[in-house]
Amino acid sequence: MLADNDGVAFLATAVPDESVSFYRDQLGLELVEDSPFALVFACRNVMLRVQKVTAPTPVSHTVFGWDVADIRETLRKLAQRGIDAAFFPGLPQDETGIWASPSGALVAWFRNPDGNCLSLTQFPEA
Averaged over 111-126, what is the pLDDT? Predict the structure, then answer.
């Protein structure tokens, strides 16, 4: 029923000015709206709504991610923009923060200004 419709992803922020800088300036997403309720970014076929709240609680799992063609190059570019990979105890990540999943996908994580975990995934060639 909804498979032919574009998705809308929701995140929350208590620091909207930092979030604008993070998503627009560091990640390169287009800011399409800044209302009293949310920041809205264009992200290909997904609308990313970052809701303005007083006290979001960061969660321990990944809340949003991107499918990238070259994870190492993407991580390098993010690092140039001041975004560091997140490392997790007990997870075998390489020195750049990349974990090789059992499926062959390469995955890395980083955090947004509110402390939530975002991810990059390079899926194996089909």
Answer: 93
